[in-house]
Input
Amino acid sequence: MAKENANKNSSEKSEIKKLKSKLLTERKNIGKNPATNQPEQVEQAEKFCVGYKRFLDNGKTERAACKSAVEMAREAGFIEYKPGEKYSPGAKVYFVNRSRAVIFAVIGSEPFQNGMNIIASHIDSPRIDLKQNPLFEEGELAYFKTHYYGGIKKYQWPSLPLALHGVVIKEDGTSVDVEIGEDDNDPVFTVTDLLPHLSDAQYKRPANELIRGEELNLLIGSRPFVSGEESDSVKLAIMKLLNNKYGIVERDFATAELEAVPAFKARDIGFDRSIVGGYGQDDRSCAYTSLAAILELATPPKRTALCVLADKEEVGSQGNTGLASRFLEYFIADLVGDSYEMRRCLANSKCLSADVCAAFDPTFPDVFEKNNTPFMNHGTVIVKYVGSRGKSGTNDASAEFVGEIRRIFDSAGVVWQTGELGKVDAGGGGTVAMFISKLNVDTIDVGVPVLSMHAPMELTAKSDLYMTYKGFKAFYSA
Ligand code: MN
Ligand code: MN
Output
């Protein structure tokens, strides 16, 4: 009798187990799922991230990322797009928009009016820009005045080694590229912070003013030009150095774009090296995964594939290199030609707005709603909507389109999860999705979960990066 009961119990238990796995969603770490945690997956993710870390190191600004993406594409056989030229299926072209944004295209075998598969991400990241009149001397130290770019927590930026990147346009119109602080032999720059001993008053400031915008002054030198009583002698000495090296004068800063970014390189994080730590992973993690996917695309794909790396997302996508401008629309129009066909093309196109999403952070659980927050190592994130204050200012993808993406990912063995940006009233954010859906393109956000988003060092899991790349590849081939 006892044995019968035990048998009955165990068969009931297995019935419940079966029913559970059939009816309920089990949220699983890639590493805990025997189907996904295979040695070759770990190895492939590891290998994939070698190139990824190199891309992060070589592309710390939108200009640098654009340049390095084009170099990679040229190596893979992409050629510069010529407006007006007819391209046949299999052609691989790229179009650079003012050195700061780029579109890569692989022409498909189907007619354009069947639509394109587009993945759009951004290659600008939060940072500290120089003001147009930046140079000053105070207390016999020389500094650059700055104006930060994008949503940074200002207190995170002092006491870091910072590199300077950008371009200076001289009076005669010629330009000089600047990159100081990336080579191990280069000097770096830094923003000073107050010693704790004298910080009683600073500690009483609200956190967003712990370091104020006007206190983000970049220290650039301290040695005076001459002994004696001459004022601004340190400033003069710095300008003399810059003039020797770049042939520039102080006035040329007015026509320059100079950006300070963390000088450190991307590194593996953790004893198990499962995480990548590096600057600018929002959104170069999605830029790299989509770029790698289009570079490896078997040609010709059925539908024309587009990989868009845009600028200015961190300040609202405005400006002619951001996706609120019409450069993507005009590129597609030039490629497709006839305006009726162009409209059909857009209406039938599908777009993944590839951007990162905040991963659950166990140290700060209060801002996350666990059921709808992505976890590290749970795969690429499908984000149906972002926005704030009740889905305001967002593209909210249709259930039908989410269903399509789900089927593409499932049939390619892509591990995915859904999530949104924190609790309903905790804040919010935006992506480029709303600008692309404006073109009458089906659009949805998909990307990599990130810890410490917008910090000088952001974190992503290698297995999530790999799954995102795999998902993008499947999308381009669909
Ligand atoms: Mn982003
Ligand atoms: Mn961002």
